[in-house]
Amino acid sequence: MARIAITDTGGLDFTPGIAVLDAAGHDTILLHEGEGLLTHLADLEGLIVSFCRIDASVIAAAPLLKVIVTTTTGLDQIDMHAAKAAGIAVFSLPSPATEEVATHALAGILTLLREIPAAREASKCWDFKKIPAPTRISELTLAVYGMGRIARALVTLALPLFGRVVAYDPYISTEAWPKTVGRVDSLNDLFQIADVLTLHAPATLENHHLVNTRTIELMPQGASIINVARGELVDTQALIAAVQSGRLRGAFLDVVDPEPPEADAPVLHEPRIVVTPHSAFFSKETELAYVMLAVENLQQIFE
């Protein structure tokens, strides 16, 4: 059967997936963060990739390669043009973690708006006056950038809490737009009314550093930003400056740019920015699903 390399695990436990591949007669090798990949490329027929970069030079050095599957919903790490030119099939995952990411985003929103980090510190002296007074959530507007599956799941959870939910997504038709969500026609309009801005879109050249000094200045004083999508959507230095100056109330980030950040990265040490380690997808159920769906995608090619 086929010779397969798992370039990197992305922190997932690949044991059950490797067992399935072995049982099917495949020769599977597990690499650490892509180390040694170049020495195996000549006879590889399949790759399972988490975050390892597969560029044109890797593809050119793998003449037998038939398929690349990822354990991610996005394909930012794959040179799709080179893969297509080489006739290599590429599969990403559907979204097995929609529920997890949506609830993680809501947890971040509530963490910021109810001042949980400050309240935790205030508990040490048992003085609630040490907590910046939160605004009642039903008085606020939640602004959503992108209205894909995760955003829609979050909106369902957030609608009973917020006074208003609005969104911007130029790729969704009027007929398909959720009736319970207000629609704005420009990014400037979205930023101007966003007491809480939550980001739900892939990274593209067009939206690189969508959140920047200029767009932050459009937001209401004391607004908050949530990013469980892609780190490249946010200019981290501009975000930190806005939080430190008090222009923003705070931020909740499950993704940063670059990843992983250095241990001394300022974004990890700003008290009013809560960071989680790209873990929004993570649950007992999704850890298994990400591995097994990737294996199923790969086996389609070799059946």
From TrEMBL:
It comes from the Bacteria. Residues 35-302 form the D-isomer specific 2-hydroxyacid dehydrogenase catalytic domain. Keywords: NAD, Oxidoreductase. Coiled coil: none annotated. GO terms for molecular function: NAD binding; oxidoreductase activity, acting on the CH-OH group of donors, NAD or NADP as acceptor; transcription corepressor activity. Transmembrane segments: none annotated. Pfam families: 2-Hacid_dh, 2-Hacid_dh_C. Residues 107-280 form the D-isomer specific 2-hydroxyacid dehydrogenase NAD-binding domain. Belongs to the D-isomer specific 2-hydroxyacid dehydrogenase family. This is D-isomer specific 2-hydroxyacid dehydrogenase NAD-binding domain-containing protein. It comes from Acinetobacter bereziniae LMG 1003 = CIP 70.12. The lineage of its organism: Bacteria, Pseudomonadati, Pseudomonadota, Gammaproteobacteria, Moraxellales.
